Structure prediction request, 160 residues.
Amino acid sequence: MLLLGGCTADLTTRDLREAEDNLSYGKPAGEKVKGKPLVISPTVEAKYTIARAMDFVISEKNDDGEFQETRKNLSSIRKNPLLPHYLKVEAGYIMVMLDKIEDLKRLNRASSLQKEKCADEVGRVKDENDRMKKELEELRYKLQKIEEIHINTEKKRGVQ
Prediction:
Protein backbone atom coordinates (compact mmCIF):
# COMPACT_ATOMS: atom_id res chain seq x y z
CA MET A 1 0.00 0.00 0.00
CA LEU A 2 1.29 3.39 -0.91
CA LEU A 3 1.23 6.01 1.77
CA LEU A 4 0.58 9.06 -0.36
CA GLY A 5 -1.53 11.81 1.20
CA GLY A 6 -4.94 11.69 -0.47
CA CYS A 7 -4.38 8.45 -2.37
CA THR A 8 -4.20 6.25 0.71
CA ALA A 9 -7.94 6.11 1.34
CA ASP A 10 -8.67 5.42 -2.30
CA LEU A 11 -6.16 2.58 -2.54
CA THR A 12 -7.36 0.87 0.64
CA THR A 13 -11.03 0.97 -0.29
CA ARG A 14 -10.85 0.25 -4.03
CA ASP A 15 -11.21 -3.50 -3.52
CA LEU A 16 -13.97 -2.90 -1.00
CA ARG A 17 -15.91 -0.71 -3.43
CA GLU A 18 -15.52 -3.29 -6.20
CA ALA A 19 -16.72 -6.01 -3.83
CA GLU A 20 -19.68 -3.90 -2.71
CA ASP A 21 -20.59 -3.24 -6.35
CA ASN A 22 -20.49 -6.96 -7.12
CA LEU A 23 -22.52 -7.80 -4.02
CA SER A 24 -25.13 -5.18 -4.84
CA TYR A 25 -25.77 -7.02 -8.12
CA GLY A 26 -26.00 -10.39 -6.35
CA LYS A 27 -22.58 -11.57 -7.48
CA PRO A 28 -20.09 -13.08 -5.03
CA ALA A 29 -17.35 -10.76 -3.88
CA GLY A 30 -14.65 -13.34 -4.35
CA GLU A 31 -11.23 -12.67 -2.90
CA LYS A 32 -11.72 -8.91 -2.69
CA VAL A 33 -13.03 -8.98 0.89
CA LYS A 34 -11.13 -12.00 2.20
CA GLY A 35 -8.10 -9.99 3.14
CA LYS A 36 -8.16 -6.42 4.37
CA PRO A 37 -5.44 -3.85 4.93
CA LEU A 38 -3.71 -3.99 8.29
CA VAL A 39 -4.33 -0.37 9.20
CA ILE A 40 -7.85 0.84 8.50
CA SER A 41 -10.46 2.86 10.30
CA PRO A 42 -13.26 1.15 12.26
CA THR A 43 -15.75 2.34 9.65
CA VAL A 44 -13.89 0.70 6.78
CA GLU A 45 -13.39 -2.43 8.88
CA ALA A 46 -17.15 -2.54 9.52
CA LYS A 47 -17.76 -2.20 5.78
CA TYR A 48 -15.42 -5.14 5.15
CA THR A 49 -17.30 -7.18 7.76
CA ILE A 50 -20.66 -6.30 6.21
CA ALA A 51 -19.35 -7.15 2.74
CA ARG A 52 -18.10 -10.54 4.01
CA ALA A 53 -21.51 -11.17 5.59
CA MET A 54 -23.27 -10.39 2.31
CA ASP A 55 -20.80 -12.63 0.48
CA PHE A 56 -21.72 -15.40 2.94
CA VAL A 57 -25.42 -14.87 2.16
CA ILE A 58 -24.95 -14.75 -1.61
CA SER A 59 -22.65 -17.77 -1.74
CA GLU A 60 -25.28 -19.85 0.14
CA LYS A 61 -22.71 -21.59 2.29
CA ASN A 62 -24.11 -23.99 4.85
CA ASP A 63 -21.26 -23.77 7.34
CA ASP A 64 -22.75 -23.30 10.83
CA GLY A 65 -19.40 -22.15 12.24
CA GLU A 66 -19.09 -19.39 9.67
CA PHE A 67 -22.75 -18.49 10.22
CA GLN A 68 -22.17 -18.03 13.94
CA GLU A 69 -18.99 -16.03 13.34
CA THR A 70 -20.75 -13.78 10.82
CA ARG A 71 -23.62 -13.23 13.24
CA LYS A 72 -21.17 -12.41 16.05
CA ASN A 73 -19.29 -9.91 13.87
CA LEU A 74 -22.51 -8.19 12.80
CA SER A 75 -23.65 -8.03 16.40
CA SER A 76 -20.38 -6.36 17.39
CA ILE A 77 -20.91 -3.77 14.66
CA ARG A 78 -24.39 -3.02 16.01
CA LYS A 79 -23.03 -2.56 19.53
CA ASN A 80 -20.01 -0.42 18.59
CA PRO A 81 -20.72 3.19 19.64
CA LEU A 82 -17.93 4.57 17.42
CA LEU A 83 -19.55 3.50 14.15
CA PRO A 84 -22.03 5.59 12.17
CA HIS A 85 -25.71 4.76 12.49
CA TYR A 86 -26.11 3.64 8.87
CA LEU A 87 -23.53 0.86 9.32
CA LYS A 88 -25.32 -0.36 12.44
CA VAL A 89 -28.58 -0.41 10.53
CA GLU A 90 -27.03 -2.30 7.60
CA ALA A 91 -25.58 -4.85 10.02
CA GLY A 92 -29.01 -5.19 11.62
CA TYR A 93 -30.67 -5.73 8.25
CA ILE A 94 -28.22 -8.46 7.37
CA MET A 95 -28.67 -10.11 10.78
CA VAL A 96 -32.43 -10.19 10.24
CA MET A 97 -31.89 -11.62 6.77
CA LEU A 98 -29.54 -14.29 8.16
CA ASP A 99 -32.13 -15.22 10.79
CA LYS A 100 -34.83 -15.52 8.15
CA ILE A 101 -32.56 -17.64 5.97
CA GLU A 102 -31.79 -19.90 8.93
CA ASP A 103 -35.53 -20.23 9.70
CA LEU A 104 -36.20 -21.14 6.07
CA LYS A 105 -33.42 -23.74 6.14
CA ARG A 106 -34.95 -25.21 9.29
CA LEU A 107 -38.38 -25.34 7.63
CA ASN A 108 -36.82 -26.89 4.54
CA ARG A 109 -35.23 -29.64 6.62
CA ALA A 110 -38.55 -30.29 8.38
CA SER A 111 -40.37 -30.37 5.02
CA SER A 112 -37.78 -32.78 3.64
CA LEU A 113 -38.34 -35.12 6.58
CA GLN A 114 -42.10 -34.84 6.10
CA LYS A 115 -41.68 -35.58 2.39
CA GLU A 116 -39.64 -38.70 3.14
CA LYS A 117 -42.28 -39.90 5.62
CA CYS A 118 -45.01 -39.28 3.05
CA ALA A 119 -43.05 -41.14 0.38
CA ASP A 120 -42.68 -44.12 2.74
CA GLU A 121 -46.40 -43.96 3.53
CA VAL A 122 -47.27 -43.83 -0.19
CA GLY A 123 -45.13 -46.91 -0.82
CA ARG A 124 -46.79 -48.76 2.04
CA VAL A 125 -50.29 -47.79 0.86
CA LYS A 126 -49.50 -48.85 -2.73
CA ASP A 127 -48.30 -52.23 -1.50
CA GLU A 128 -51.46 -52.63 0.58
CA ASN A 129 -53.58 -51.57 -2.40
CA ASP A 130 -51.91 -54.17 -4.63
CA ARG A 131 -52.43 -56.83 -1.98
CA MET A 132 -56.10 -55.91 -1.66
CA LYS A 133 -56.58 -55.98 -5.45
CA LYS A 134 -55.15 -59.50 -5.58
CA GLU A 135 -57.39 -60.52 -2.70
CA LEU A 136 -60.40 -59.02 -4.50
CA GLU A 137 -59.61 -60.94 -7.68
CA GLU A 138 -59.21 -64.11 -5.65
CA LEU A 139 -62.57 -63.56 -3.91
CA ARG A 140 -64.26 -62.83 -7.27
CA TYR A 141 -62.89 -66.09 -8.62
CA LYS A 142 -64.15 -68.00 -5.58
CA LEU A 143 -67.59 -66.34 -5.85
CA GLN A 144 -67.78 -67.29 -9.51
CA LYS A 145 -66.93 -70.90 -8.67
CA ILE A 146 -69.53 -70.96 -5.87
CA GLU A 147 -72.15 -69.55 -8.30
CA GLU A 148 -71.26 -72.25 -10.85
CA ILE A 149 -71.57 -74.93 -8.19
CA HIS A 150 -74.91 -73.46 -7.08
CA ILE A 151 -76.21 -73.36 -10.66
CA ASN A 152 -75.09 -76.96 -11.24
CA THR A 153 -76.73 -78.01 -8.00
CA GLU A 154 -80.01 -76.28 -8.98
CA LYS A 155 -79.92 -77.99 -12.39
CA LYS A 156 -79.46 -81.36 -10.73
CA ARG A 157 -82.36 -80.67 -8.34
CA GLY A 158 -84.55 -79.60 -11.23
CA VAL A 159 -83.76 -82.83 -13.06
CA GLN A 160 -84.75 -85.05 -10.13
